[in-house]
Specification:
It is built from 6 helices and 7 strands. With 181 residues, the protein is of the alpha/beta class. The chain has a single domain (5-97, 133-178), classed as 3-Layer(aba) Sandwich (Rossmann fold), CATH 3.40.50.700. A 5-stranded parallel beta sheet has the order 2-1-3-5-7, with helices on both faces. The chain has a two-stranded antiparallel ribbon with strand order 4-6. The radius of gyration is 18 Å and the shape is globular. The N and C termini lie far apart (41 Å). Bound molecules: iron/sulfur cluster. Iron/sulfur cluster (SF4) is lined by residues 14-15, 17-18, 60-61, 86-88, 93-94, 151-152.
């Protein structure tokens, strides 16, 4: 019997649009599962990534907090192959717009000055993730093996990469798979 390729996904500083595109593979997702893919953990199944045995780890979003930094490092330790999915993970994307400002300015704007959130208390406590000084693409924190750019990447591009990896082949995105609307 063919060994299953276990896939885990997480989303960091992203909008979940890349995971929506992942789900938009629709029946192709079923094909991937029939061809040997299985999920070990995802935001839409179970967040607990097993310590060993995950073949492919997919990361949506850039790295913006200390918690996200820990999570992507854990993905690298626990997954044989890491894929950065979407422009935020690949390049930093929209969340890097905050890199022009100090974190104190960002908190002040969000919790003190915002018209809809005027003069509120700043979030505090040991359990609250801390913003990193700068938002980073995933490859500034860990080694990335494959990149699927796009905002979000098309379901076809995600399928191309996963189907090849499940067959034990090296995926290559080109032509229409690298064109965006
Ligand atoms: S790449 Fe685009 S769709 Fe994906 S998380 Fe970033 S903003 Fe959202």
């Amino acid at each position: 019997m063919k060994t299953k390729k276990l896939v885990s996904t997480i989303w960091c500083e992203g909008c979940s649009g890349c995971h929506m595109s992942f789900l938009d593979m629709d029946e192709k997702l079923v094909d991937l599962i029939k061809n040997g893919m299985a999920f070990s953990a995802t935001p839409f199944t179970d967040l607990k990534i097993p310590p060993h045995g995950t073949d492919i780890g997919i990361i949506e979003g850039s790295v913006a907090t200390d918690t996200q930094e820990e999570e992507v490092k854990m993905m690298r330790e626990r997954c044989k192959i890491i894929i950065a999915m979407g422009d935020c993970a690949v390049f930093g994307g929209i969340p890097t717009m905050r890199n022009r400002y100090e974190t104190t300015e960002i908190f002040s704007r969000a919790y003190k000055q915002a018209e809809t959130n005027y003069n509120q208390h700043l979030p505090a406590g040991e359990d609250i993730s801390k913003l990193l000084a700068k938002v980073k693409p995933v490859n500034e924190v860990i080694k990335v093996d494959y990149y699927i750019p796009g905002c979000p990447p098309t379901p076809e591009a995600i399928y191309e990469v996963l189907s090849k990896l499940i067959e034990g082949k090296t995926p290559e995105l080109k032509g229409k798979l690298l064109s965006y609307e």
